[in-house]
Amino acid sequence: MHEHKLYNEQIRSHSDSTASNQQIFWGFSMAASSSTAATLSWSSSSFFQTFGNTVNESVKLPDKRSALLVLAQKKAKKTRKIILKEDVGELGKKGQLLDVKAGFYRNYLHPMGKAQIVTPLLLKEMKMEEERIEAEKKRVKEEAQQLALIFETVGAFKVKRKGGKGKQIFGSVTAQDVVDIIKAQLQRDVDKKIVVLPEIRETGEYIAQLKLHPEVTARIRLNVFAN
After folding, report:
1. C-alpha dihedral over 17, 18, 19, 25, to 10 degrees?
2. DSSP sequence for 147-183
3. Model pTM above 0.70
4. Domain Ribosomal protein L9: where (predicted)?
5. Which of 95, 123, 91, 87 is nearest to 104 (CA)?
6. Is 56 helix (H, G, I), strand (E, B) or coil?
7. Are residues 50 and 84 both part of a single domain?
């Protein structure tokens, strides 16, 4: 009977140990579950926060540069590029290209016939005209250079005047005298307005200038003598 009592105590001790182990196991299980739940909760929160930021970035309003571009485009629509058909006060000169307010063109410049809208065709015509004018300017300058070479290599033009005492002459040599002499010796017409010469009241040799072109000046020699 004593052996039977020892056997029951061993059974009871084993049961208590098993129950204790089960409590420890469930404690660890619950702790692990809590940790896992916390981890999932944190991960979910991080995911939704990141997703939310991505969505917010995708629906951001246009940046400042885009806003300025839109504003510039709107402003451009309110102006017109025009060419003046005549001088307009302080606005500009005939043929000048300008950007003006659409309302100013519509209500004043266009009705008064003072300007017209610049179109691609008009720009092309203007460019062709500009090229024609430049070609003509070049031709005129080259002709002036050739004429200057002739004047400077022909030698001195003789100018005869009635003499007075010593080297003095009666009267003076004028621009018209030079024009007449050139016509007589070279058969070329020259406008007296382009003749520049010093005051000549005595016999001797002088230098006169012919302004053949804004960029071309011929120097000619005048030999003044008394008859």
Report:
1. 110
2. HHHHHHHS-PEEEEE-B-STTBBSS---HHHHHHHHH
3. no
4. 92-119
5. 91
6. helix
7. no
Residues 18 and 55 in one domain: yes
Alpha carbon distance 112, 105 (integer Å): 10
Q: Are residues 165 and 220 both part of a single domain?
A: yes
Q: Give mean pLDDT, residues 39-48.
A: 42
Residue 130 lies in a domain: no
Token pair for 176 = 């018209």
Are 50 and 76 in a shared domain?
A: no
Is residue 218 helix, strand or coil? strand
In a domain, 133, yes or no: no
Question: Pairing relation of β-strands 157-161 and 216-226?
Answer: parallel
As given in the structure block, the two tokens for residue 163 are 């003499």
Q: Return the minimum-mean-pLDDT range out of 24-33, 56-65, 90-99.
A: 24-33
Domain that holds residue 201: 138-226
134-177 pLDDT, tens digit per residue, is 999 999 999 999 999 999 898 899 999 888 888 888 888 999 99
* Residue found under tokens 């002088």: 206
Is 212 found in the same domain as 142? yes
Residue 91 lies in a domain: yes
Residues 156 and 222 in one domain: yes
CB atoms within 10 A of CB 148: 18
The CATH number of whichever domain residue 108 belongs to comes to: 3.40.5.10
